[in-house]
Design a protein that fits this description.
Largest sheet: 5 strands, mixed
Oligomer: single chain
Strand order of the largest sheet: 2-1-3-5-4
Helix content: 40-55%
Number of helices: 5
Amino acid sequence: MSTQTTTVTGARAIAAVAIVSALAAGASIEYYGLFEKVAEQSGDAQQIGSLVERFAGIPRLTGNAPRIGYFNDRTPGSVAQQAALASAQFALAPQILVLDENRNDLEYWVGDFNAPRDFAGIGKVQGLELVADLGRGVVLYRRGAGK
């Protein structure tokens, strides 16, 4: 009799686990469907795709140089400057951006601007030659004559 009781108890446990597993799988599928629907409706709320597109030409133009100089037109040391740097770094990873205008060992420099400017003139002041204006405020420079 104890063997029969153990078998019935074991079967109930297995059935309970199977039911819970099936319910969990169903809930996961439903959650995934809802998540997919919300993602489609909201689009790219943080503009991550747009950010990556802004800097998309840089790796090709720099030959995937591992380290690139970076500067922008935000106030030095400000949160805005750091946020712009972090965003550009995300878009260009695994290339490393260096925010140090006194580095003469870096061949390529990315300028990240909020508005149209005299990009060639800005580069000349820093001893950089304009390589390409990629649009939307992203400019690529190459180290030319020294400062």
